[in-house]
Amino acid sequence: MGIYSPLMETIPRSISAPAAAPVTNKTARPVPPRPRQYDARLARWLVTPLINTRVSPNHLTTLRLIVGLACAWAFARGGYAMANLGAVLLVLSNFIDHTDGELARISGKTSRIGHLYDLASDAFVTVLLFGGIGMGVAALAPDHYPLPVPLSASALGWIAGIAVALIFFLRMRIEDRVGKAGTKQASVGGFETEDVLYLMPLVTLFDGTRGFLIAAAIGAPLFALLVIADYVRVMRRPLPVKASESTSAAAATAPVEPAAPAAFAADAEIERALNAIDFDAVTREFKSQDAFIYLEQFLPQTVTEQLIAAARSVTPNVNRNYLPGHKQGGSVSRHTLDELAPYVAELYRSPALIGFLERLAGEKLLPSPQDDPHAYALYYYTRPGDHIGWHYDTSYYKGRRYTLLLGVVDQSSCKLEYRLHTRNPGVPQVDGAVAYPPGALVFFDGDKLHHRITPLGDNEERISLTFEYVTDPRMGTWQRFISNMKDAIAYFGFRQVFRQVLGRTKR
């Protein structure tokens, strides 16, 4: 399932697929066990003809979402007739919710994003259902409190909905830790706890919507407390140790020293290039410019040629973005470079390069974590007007983040314009501009340098490489989410940033 935004344009990638092997009995997909629940059995029977069609589980999830939204809308309208319509749509939505999972199981059309889409749709529809019920009851008696507390019917509906959302979230976390067995619902005679929603038409038929709302507003928060207690219990329980891990348990308890970077083939050439640099003068300039340095000639020619070849090889994978007033251009993340241009990753971890940067910074520098798509990336300026507006390379890590820019291709009039000392009170601001050609280096503290790339002209091209190093690789969950969303929207696209989430797994 793809995620599309009008602000993002992805250059298509051409892949020559091998001819499909003929399907034989030996390669036929085994049929999953017959489900115990009656509605799931009926759902499987209905979706079996769709196995070899273009219909995917995500299509059925979308259908369930549409019907669920219509259900919430009908309840929110208020009144006896609309409540009964909402109840019928609720039954239909709840049943369709089984079809996507059954189609995924019997067809093998499974994906992690499909699983998350299914869960998100369930939570969204259920929250809106209770909110809609509350709004519908409130519409009939706007000034009446269903409970002896100053809470309107609409407020009770949203309280129940929020409690249900919390239950969905915690159950998803429990499932991630201990598997589906940890969130298995109680079942009797082929019916699960959630199947009580099939009785909703009886509730509305006998005009019991108000009573159902009161029960939900009380019961959902109480049940959420039970799920919270279960979540705490599961999270405190140690994960099972695999057999291969148990044999080395003693070794695992011993302190482990960080592994030294592996030798890089071009390190000797980089060392020779560094020996030609007046390091003391460079260090003084770096400090006087508040952690900023520009070296017009840095990388050896052979290394630069390898980077140019790497940049050309991943051009079909460039993700273009356009953010009005701020950015226009293309990018390729470290995840794609790891697969298609591993030379970039080797240079990123070069002991000679890191040692030089550490001496400049005056502190230990560490590679960005493996899940950071911006650890190393290529920037492509290939269309007139491509640019990046004024910004800081803000660090979301607990420590500092240093940015290294390396020139790869520069057949342009673009400039890196910068402002020094913008965050040093009492120090005059210094403005400057450089055009770093292939092999040039720019190194700075991302939180200190205010900079931009000026717009590309006609018939011009510019490609640069960025490396990010940190002093502390820890990052909070919320900061990681913000960082990933920024990278997804402004640079690499959701597929490149969240590719680990998009990995294939059971629905």
Structure report:
The protein is α+β, with helices and mostly antiparallel strands and 507 residues long. 46% of the residues lie in helices and 15% in strands. It contains 16 helices and 15 strands. Strands 1, 4, 5, 6, 7, 8, 9, 10, 11, 12, 13, 14 and 15 form a 13-stranded antiparallel β-sheet that branches. The protein has a two-stranded antiparallel sheet with strand order 2-3. Helix 2 packs antiparallel against helix 3, helix 3 packs antiparallel against helix 4 and helix 10 packs parallel to helix 15. The longest helix is centred in the first third of the chain and has 29 residues. It is elongated. The N terminus and C terminus are likely disordered.
